[in-house]
Design brief:
Two copies of one chain form a homodimer.
Chain A (H helix, E strand, L loop, with lengths): L7 H10 L7 H13 L1 H18 L1 E2 L6 E2 L5 H4 L7 E5 L2 H10 L5 E4 L17 H10 L4 E4 L5 H13 L6 E4 L15 H9 L5
Parallel strand pairs in A: 3-4, 3-5, 5-6
Antiparallel strand pairs in A: 1-2
Helix pairs in contact in A: 1-2, 2-3
InterPro entries (chains A, B): DNA_Rcmb_RecR, Rcmb_RecR, Rcmb_RecR_Znf, TOPRIM_dom, TOPRIM_RecR
Family (chains A, B): Belongs to the RecR family.
GO biological process, one term (chains A, B): DNA recombination
C-alpha cells in the first residue's frame, strides 16, 4: 500500500513528513492533503520557510544554540547578563528555560552528556570552550542545568571539576517537589531530596 | 511567549508547522527542533520535496484528483477500467478508496457538495464536465460514493438527475453494518438501513 495513490512526488512528501516526531503515516497523509488543498496559503510559505531555515540554521559558535544567524540572538542580545552561563544538555532545554523566562544570562549547550559509548567526550561537548569562556569573559556563575539522570549528574560533576580552577561559582538546579506536585505521586528519590533540602519558613 | 527563543526564522517555521492538522504549538516545536538537529538528513530533503510538490501539484483536468502531473496517474493508467467512474466528494475519499484497493476504474472528484451558502453550484463541482465525460467516453456505470450525510445524499440525487439522459447506469454504495461492527453500538438509522437492505444467504 503506497502512502498516496501512485503519485511519486506526493508519496515521497508523505513519507518524509511521517518521519517527524508526533506524526505517523496517517497524520502525515492528512497534513499533506490539507497542504495540497491550500497550496498557496499553506504549502508554499511552509516550504519556503523550511528551505530558508535549512539553509541558514547553524550552531552558534559561542554557545551551541541553533539559530539562523552566525551568532545566536541570545549571545547577541546586549540586554542579557554577561557574567552568568547556564549549561544545558540540549537546545530543547534552552528553549524550555527561555519559555519560562526565568534566566536572563547566556547559555552553553553541550549537545549531550559524556558517553564513551556514543563517542561523546569533553571536546565533543565543548567543555574546553566553556572553560575558556569562563576565564576570558570573567564569568561569575555557571549554573549546571543538566537533567537529574545518572548521565546528566556525571557530566555535571565533570564540568564542576573542569571549572574548579576558575573564579566562577558553580551551582546546580534545586531538587524538590515540583510546583503543583502531589506528595502522594512523587517517587522516593525526589521525596528524599526534598526532605534533605528542606528550608525554614 | 515566542515559539522559539527569539530567532525570527525558526519562530516563523514553528508557527507555520503548527497550522497543520494534528500538530499544535508544542508538537510543531518538537518537530522543528528534530529537523534543526538533523538538517541534512531530514530538513533539507523535506523542504525540497515540499517545494517540488507545491510547485507542481495541480488538479487533474479530467477527474479533479490532485497530483504533480498534468493528468493524474490514475487517469493516465492504461490498466484501469475506462468505463466506470466513481464520484467522490473529496481527494481524501479517493485516497481512501485507493488504499482499500477495491475499485479499479476512474474517478470524478467533486471537491465538495452542493451548497448555496458556500457558493458551490453544479459548475463548481464539475458536474457538466462529468456529464460530458459520461457521454464522450461511453461510460457504462457511475458509482456515487458520496458521504452518507444530508449534503452528500442531496448532491448524489442531483447528479443522478443530471445523468438521467445518458446511457450510464447510476449506482450508489451499499448501506449496512460495517465489517467488524457490533449491532449494539450501531445507530438506529444504520440498523434500519441494514435491515431494509437484508439479503438471502
Amino acid at each position: 500500500m503506497g502512502a498516496a495513490p501512485e503519485d511519486a512526488g506526493i508519496d515521497a512528501l508523505i513519507e518524509l513528513m511521517a518521519r517527524l516526531p508526533g506524526l505517523g503515516p496517517r497524520s502525515a497523509r492528512r497534513a499533506v492533503l490539507m497542504m495540497l488543498k491550500r497550496r498557496g496559503q499553506v504549502m508554499a510559505p511552509l516550504a519556503q520557510a523550511m528551505a530558508q531555515v535549512a539553509l541558514n540554521a547553524r550552531d552558534c559558535q559561542i554557545c551551541g544554540n541553533i539559530s539562523t544567524t552566525e551568532i545566536c540572538p541570545i549571545c547577541q542580545d546586549p540586554a542579557r547578563a554577561t557574567r552568568e552561563i547556564c549549561v544545558v544538555e540540549d537546545v530543547a532545554d534552552l528553549w524550555a528555560l527561555e519559555r519560562a523566562g526565568v534566566f536572563r544570562g547566556r547559555y552553553h549547550v553541550l549537545g549531550g552528556t559524556l558517553s564513551a559509548l556514543d563517542g561523546l567526550g569533553p571536546d565533543e561537548l565543548g567543555i574546553p570552550r566553556l572553560a575558556r569562556r569562563v576565564t576570558d569573559e570573567g564569568i561569575a556563575e555557571v549554573i549546571l542545568a543538566l537533567n537529574a539522570t545518572v548521565d546528566g549528574q556525571t557530566t555535571a560533576h565533570y564540568i564542576a571539576d573542569a571549572l574548579a580552577g576558575t573564579e566562577a561559582q558553580i551551582s546546580t538546579l534545586a531538587q524538590g517537589v515540583p510546583v503543583g506536585g502531589e506528595l502522594d505521586y512523587l517517587d522516593d528519590g525526589t521525596l528524599g531530596a526534598a526532605l534533605r533540602a528542606r528550608r525554614r519558613i
